[in-house]
Write a structure and sequence with these properties.
The structure is a single chain. By secondary structure, this protein is mainly α. It has 2 domains: 71 residues, no CATH class; 66 residues, no CATH class. The chain contains 8 helices and no strands. The radius of gyration is 18 Å and the shape is elongated.
Length: 144
């Protein structure tokens, strides 16, 4: 991976990981949703785990193998649907009289997460025009 030669220079790590992500996406024929799933944070976690476990950077082949495992997981279809649904709501203004609960539920994936979101709405009052991206970002801030 491109990051292996310059890991000591942390300032350049993100830019090198972006190069690696582009190479992986192109070689792996990843569509836009796969690229969202295999984002820089996920790639950093893979690199960090490899360094911790074996003291060296993962190869592209190892990253492909890990992502193939993700693709075979039971949650992968739900994660893809969640990302695609988020894209349909992204930038759309929230109509408080007709909140798109079905799409929000798809984005959040689990019933537990959807229950927490409903609790969040009960405790937080929003006014004015906001879009779904902002609403979900505000919710995610409470889940960290």
């Amino acid at each position: 991976m491109a990051v292996s030669g310059a890991f000591e220079n942390v300032a350049h790590l993100d830019s090198l990981l972006k190069v690696d992500a582009q190479i992986l996406a192109q070689c792996g024929s990843w569509d836009a949703i796969d690229q969202q799933i295999m984002n820089l944070d996920y790639l950093k976690a893979i690199v960090s785990a490899a360094l911790k476990d074996k003291g060296e950077f993962p190869t592209y082949g190892e990253v492909f193998d890990l992502f193939d495992q993700v693709k075979k997981s039971e949650l992968y279809p739900a994660i893809r649907l969640s990302k695609a649904t988020f894209e349909t709501l992204s930038g759309k203004i929230v109509d408080w009289d007709n909140l798109e609960y079905d799409k929000i539920k798809t984005i959040l994936i689990t019933e537990e997460e959807f229950r927490k979101f409903n609790n969040f709405l009960g405790y937080n009052k929003f006014s004015g025009e906001i879009d779904y991206s902002y609403l979900l970002e505000e919710y995610y801030k409470t889940t960290d």
